[in-house]
Amino acid sequence: MVKNYRNSVKQLSKTWANFIEPVTPHQAVRQQNLRLLASVCLFSSLLSAFMVMGSILIVSINPLVGPVLYILIPLSLLTFCAYVLIRYGYPQVAVILLSIYITLMLYITAIGANRPTPFYYLLISVILLSLAFSRTTVALITLLQIIGLFIFVSVGKQFTFVQIFLGPALFLTFMTMALMLFWRFIESQEALRREQLTRSETYLRSVMDNIPDHIYIKDLNHRFVMVNRSALRWHRFESEEEMIGKIDSELPPPLSLTDLAQFRQEEDEILATGKALINKDYVSPRASVRSGYMLVTKVPLRDNQGNIIGLVGINRDITELKNTEAQLREREQTLQHIIDNMPVLFDAFDEQNNVVFWNRECERVTGYTAAEIVGRPDALSLLYPSPDYLQTAITTSNKLNKFYRDLEWELTCKDGSKRIIAWANVSQQAPIPGWDSWCIGVDVTDRKQMESETIQFALQNERLYLIGEFVRAVSHDFRTALSNIQNSNYFIRRGLSEGDTRRVPERLDRIEENITRLVRQIDNLQAMAALQTIEPVLTDLNRILRLSIAEQENRLEKRALKVDFTLSEHIPLIGVDPDHIQQALHNLIDNAINHSPDGGLLILRSHNDARYVYIEIGDQGGGISEDKLPYIFDLFYRTDEARSLHKGGIGLGLSMVKMIAEAHSGTVKVHSVAGEGTTFTLALPIQQA
User: Fold this and answer.
1) Which of 137, 229, 374, 548 is the most buried (most CB within 10 A)?
2) What DSSP letter does each residue of 469-516 carry, written as one string?
3) Cα–Cα–Cα angle for 82, 83, 87, nearest 5°?
């Protein structure tokens, strides 16, 4: 009987708590205030409703009770409306309505009683306001109420100023101040509690993340709301956000329907009954990817009211404990069987680099049996006949502290054939008693051959592409030049036939320009073909630079271009192929002329240091934009297609300069500033001399 009574009281309390809980969650103190307001309003509404029903029954007997209904019915409706407003997030509106109603009732009561005592109860409205508004707002409203009392006194003349000031006004002032101090104390305590709670949460999180067990929290819908690092790693997640909100069926690797049903049934029972699941061990449903045995504990998670809001789970990997004895008994036999039959090479060495283990795959790949290799001091010399190569292999392994992966070495088989083996050695991290080191190797000979064939095929395609681009560019450039010559020839003939020779010199100049252009392209092609045969002789680069600029004298005069020579007379003679170097300088000077404005300045400099001789050729043209600089030495690349069709060519000039420089073990670099000009620096090594 007592137990049933307690259960009924507990159920009634839980129902009442559900009725007064705000729909929208708030900060802790505010949440508690709203619960208190909702309780007061709901209780007042129910009490008023019962009083209304009682008054209706009594009014038939005693009509004097009738006027009471005019107070109780509005009070019941108003308090119920306030309760609804508070639950759904409008407590300020509810409190204002209640305060207005209370104030009106108190004023009416004071007038009817002809004494100011009811005004003392204005404190009720102040208390209600303090539950929903800030301290400043409450103080302001209290001040307005006191001012309202004085206005009432001055207008009504029913009470004296002294009665109101020394009575309700002074009482309201002091009680409001006390109430403000009280709420300030409550808020400071709440702030301290929040700080302590945050510190506790930080400590708790630190402990959770450093525990090797898998710890997690689920809500009533079986979704994860918190997990520790161990659980994240076990499920292969990088961050908690990836796992939060998921259920077991959404986690990798997938679970079977049977396992999912078992998990759901166990957790539903915990959430429904509150009965914990303690230290249940079973085979992990993810044993194919993770540990085979887990020790699981799941307990209900409750809120401050004792309601179950989820569960806390702790999974401990006990696979090692379960399997230790079996592994110790079977370890040697299983390891021997696996190593002997695995489709990779497996060998082991002692401290003197003698082979102590040689599996069947080693025998198949090399042709040497274990009897021919194991224990033989010169076994490695059979596999690596070159002493230097063998010493390099041993030195490299020792330098890497016998820890490496995919280290490729070419060994010699018994039949004399060569095989490339990619070795991995993790013996320092996973030592095996009795072995100084052990290695696993994969025969990658066929893969390497396929890669080589693939590369050759790609190179062949690249060659075909370059040939196609070359033919297209050359044919287009030659066709353009020949078309210009043909057109000029036609106009010359027509002008001569008509006796008009005014534009003949201009047409002849155009023919000469296009012939020069064709000759220049042919020279580039011949120079490219001759790059395979470099015949270095001691050469004065200043002399070649002067010859190259002299070849451009006519073009310089037509464009009114000036040349600034700054040539060092101390540069040494170096061993280069003069024809190729002259071609490179010709191309750089030609490029500078093409990009210089009429009347501009060309800059030619030479100097040297201990290792290189430097030739600098610059212009004061428009420069080259940064996005084009990385490509200017590429074959067939032209920075300005429209300009090149008229003046430049097929994009071989600068490519030829780079090829000639590299053929002489030199370099060519470019520095350009948009709007200021471009400078090319050709560096040739003095060691060639």
Assistant:
1) 548
2) HHHHHHHHHHHHHHHHHHHHHHHHHHHHHTT--TTHHHHHHHHHHHHH
3) 115
Quote the CA–CA distance of 519 and 525 in Å, as a whole number.
10
Percent of the chain surpassing pLDDT 90: 7
The predicted model gives 626-648 an average pLDDT of 63
Kindly provide the b/e burial profile for residues 485-522, where b requires at least 16 CB atoms within 10 angstroms of the residue's own CB: beebeebbeeeeeeeeeeeeeebeebbebbeebbebbe
Beta-bridge partner residues of 224? 218
Statement: residue 288 has pLDDT above 50: no
The mean pLDDT of 216-229, rounded to a whole number, is 90
State how far the Cα of 339 lies from the Cα of 333, in Å rounded to an integer: 10
For the chain, state the CA radius of gyration: 49
Q: What would the DSSP string read from start to end of 193-249?
A: HHHHHHHHHHHHHHHHHH-SSEEEEEETTS-EEEE-HHHHHHTT-SSGGGTTT--GG
For the chain, the average pLDDT equals: 79
Phi, psi of 570 (to 5 degrees): -110, 5
Q: Cα dist. 1→4, 5, 6, 7, 8 in Å?
A: 5, 6, 9, 10, 11
State how far the Cα of 241 lies from the Cα of 225, in Å rounded to an integer: 9
Q: What's residue 668's pLDDT?
A: 92
pTM (two decimals): 0.35
Q: Do the beta carbons of residue 377 and residue 400 sit within 8 Å?
A: no
Distance CA 478, CA 458 (A): 30
Residues 636/640/643/649 CA torsion (nearest 10 deg): -10
CB 618 within 8 A of CB 679: yes
User: pLDDT per residue over 404-421, tens digit each?
Assistant: 888 888 999 999 999 999
CB atoms within 10 A of CB 417: 11
Of the CA atoms within 13 Å of residue 631, those in its CB half-sphere come to 10
